[in-house]
Amino acid sequence: MKTQVAIIGAGPAGLMLGQLLTRAGIDNLILERQSADYVLGRIRAGVLEQGTVDLLDEAGAGARMHAEGLPHSGFSLCFDGDELRIDLEALTGRAVMVYGQTEVTRDLMALRQSSGAPTLYGAKDVALHDIDGSPRITFTRDGAPAQLSCDFIAGCDGFHGPSRAAMPPEVLRLFERVYPFGWLGVLVDRPPAAHELVYAHHERGFALCSMRSATRSRYYIQCDTTENLADWSDDRFYDELSRRIPAATAAALQRGPAIEKSIAPLRSFVAEPLRHGRLFLAGDAAHIVPPTGAKGLNLAMHDVRCLYDALAEHYRAGSDAGVEHYSARVLDRIWRTERFSWSLTTLLHSFPGADPFTRRIQRAEFDALVSSPKLQTVLAENYTGLVS
Ligand code: APR
Ligand code: PHB
Q1: What is the mean pLDDT of residues 224-232?
Q2: Of all atoms in ligand 2, which is nearest to the CA of residue 44?
Q3: What confidence tens digit (pLDDT) does each residue in 2-23 have?
Q4: In whole numbers, what is the pLDDT of the chain averaged over residues?
Q5: Tens of pLDDT along 30-48?
């Protein structure tokens, strides 16, 4: 088999890149280890920056998002019961769109299917070769070996995929922070407890009230990574959530049977560089942010936009300037977004063993936000998505 751009991974990053390339007439093939249903079974965050909304529109994938997504002009930040509304619209002139990543993925999958561009699901043993010269990918499907030659490889295969591991270890630098807690999440078919998202710091741990629609809510509480899901009945979860959020929000909380419940660890991670030879890394293959700032998908979409620009320049103008510049260009935003996600995580979580000084500093940071529209503006600019 042969294609111009081989994409590994059919998550949102791989699918979006595929769609942009297909629309530009650039041949591409996606190799995905799992089935489409498996990919759609993963529940992830659901806040889209304007830049992500624009990219979905540009890709022709925005119709259902505009019909069903919920534009939010603000959110609530709470500290031990005190509440501060961050008025995104007033502070930045921009809003965010609440629309689940699962739905973004579904829309991109449907588009790919109608475009006729090939996706090979169930591709096992994917291995990358000659990324410095004439790249090839070997894999197996239904037990049969196969080979794909290409001009470029886009590694959109998430944190555990083979692409990053195919970079020579001597050129790769990894930066990581693993947080001493996780998030226990519940998805439930009940109207949200509040009209906007509520992020809450509490000495018992962080809590978040989010949503997927007017009738479906997504709630999280900070938990120990060693917690056992089986120990968390729905009632125990709602009891704990209610303790950590403002009383009025707790009073409005509608309990219902969890349709999904899972524990996710929190981690910050960046790989450098994000290109070697003809291999690029994008999305979770390149970086992980803790979910506190809702930046994972948005950052992945920014990578893909830049990667598409670089590849389009190569094929249309015969210039590799964009290819050469890709890594530096995306790393600039990645690090600024890592900083934001880390700082919001640090402000809002209860760190095991934290001394009283650390707690007072967290409180002082919240108080500084309350009293300073300038600090609120910086927060809002980061939350709605950095413009430059
Ligand atoms: N071979 C083929 N495909 C693979 C392999 C492999 N060996 N390993 C992983 N994959 C696939 C996964 O099955 C998955 O479908 O790569 C895809 C990667 O998708 P995601 O993990 O969703 O990553 P990405 O597309 O970069 O999306 C980033 O997802 O995790 C969130 O916060 C993150 O919202 C952000 C978004
Ligand atoms: C979610 O709805 O899953 C969500 C929203 C905001 C976040 C993280 C997750 O910061």
Answers
A1: 96
A2: 3
A3: 999 999 999 999 999 999 999 9
A4: 97
A5: 999 999 999 998 888 889 9
Closest residue to atom 6 of ligand 2, CA basis:
294
Q: What is the pLDDT of residue 44?
A: 85
pLDDT of residue 117: 97
Choose the residue to mutate in 220, 221, 297 for probing ligand 2, maximizing ligand atoms within 8 Å of C-beta: 220
Is 352 labeled as catalytic in the residue annotation? no
**What predicted TM-score, i.e. pTM, was given to this entire model?**
0.97
Q: How confident is the model at residue 85, as a pLDDT?
A: 98
For the CA of 196, the nearest ligand: 2
Catalytic residue among 179, 199, 238, 308: 199
- Please state the three-class secondary structure of the chain as a single string: CECCEEEECCCHHHHHHHHHHHHCCCCEEEEECCCHHHHHCCCCCCEECHHHHHHHHHCCCCHHHHHHCEEECEEEEEECCEEEEEEHHHHHCCCEEECCHHHHHHHHHHHHHHHCCCEEECEEEEEEECCCCCCEEEEEECCEEEEEECCEEEECCCCCCHHHHCCCCCCCEEEEEEEEEEEEEEEECCCCCCCCCEEEECCCCCEEEEECCCCCEEEEEEECCCCCHHHCCHHHHHHHHHHHCCHHHHHHCCCCCEEEEEEEEEEEEEEECCEECCEEECHHHCEECCHHHCCHHHHHHHHHHHHHHHHHHHHHHCCCHHHHHHHHHHHHHHHHHHHHHHHHHHHHCCCCCCCHHHHHHHHHHHHHHHHCHHHHHHHHHHHHCCCC
Residue closest via CA to ligand 2's atom 4 equals: 45
User: Could you read off the pLDDT of 91-104 as tens digits, one per residue?
Assistant: 999 999 999 999 99
Query: Relative to the alpha carbon of 101, which ligand is closest?
Result: 1
